[in-house]
Design goal:
The chain has 186 residues and is α+β, with helices and mostly antiparallel strands. It has two domains: 60 residues, lambda repressor-like DNA-binding domains (434 Repressor (Amino-terminal Domain)); 98 residues, Jelly Rolls (Sandwich). The chain has five helices and ten strands; from the N terminus they run αααααββββββββββ. The strands form two sheets. The protein has a six-stranded antiparallel beta sheet. The protein has a four-stranded antiparallel beta sheet with strand order 4-9-6-7, with no helix packed on it. It is globular, with a radius of gyration of 16 Å. 29% of the residues are buried.
Length: 186
């Protein structure tokens, strides 16, 4: 699924959930800490919100990122197509491949960062963590004033309940993330 298709589907889902919750655009915007204009553009599929913005909207609606962005089915086997959720001007991107059926739980992501690109993440809910496996290149992970270089084949566990960043300082890097959100959602 392309970014444009994702943005349109996201807008429809936000609107559907907002209306189900009997919230006005202004009320949801206030809960999410966004402007009414930004939320309107997201619902209309004309804005390309950051991952952090989508996460704020999801929390304001009482769900998690994956619940808001991934179609669900009740089948015991759900085959999913990757959804491009984020793309930078430099061509870096994040694909959400599949998410668990229960709230908060695991999300399988594939990321590619172009040389010199950086992704600055906001803190996830308390108790959240990520498992990272670098498949090509060298990824630098920064958190709380520390950084670690992870070469291809290296893996790490990251407490993502605080701000962190990914960078690709020397060349393109590809990595896989498994995200498990903490149970203490705001």
């Amino acid at each position: 699924m392309s970014t444009g298709e994702f943005i349109e589907r996201l807008g429809r889902e936000v609107r559907r959930r907002r209306q189900e919750a009997d919230l006005t655009v202004q009320a949801l915007a206030d809960r999410a800490g966004l402007s009414r204009r930004m939320l309107t553009q997201i619902e209309q599929g004309t804005a390309n919100p950051s991952l952090a913005t989508v996460d704020k909207i999801a929390r304001a609606l009482g769900v998690d990122f994956a619940t808001l962005t991934t179609p669900w089915g009740a089948e015991p086997l759900h085959v999913s197509q990757p959804v491009e959720v984020w793309r930078s001007r430099a061509g870096s991107r994040a694909l959400l491949h599949v998410a668990g059926a229960r709230r908060g739980g695991p999300e399988l992501w594939e990321w590619t960062l172009q040389p010199g690109d950086r992704y600055q993440a906001q803190a996830d809910p308390r108790g959240s963590e990520e498992l990272i496996l670098v498949t090509a290149g060298t990824l630098v992970v920064e958190i709380e004033g520390r950084s670690a270089e992870l070469a291809a084949g290296a893996s790490a566990r990251l407490a993502s309940d605080r701000p962190y960043a990914y960078t690709a300082p020397d060349g393109a890097v590809s990595f896989v993330r498994v995200v498990e959100l903490g149970r203490h959602q705001a």
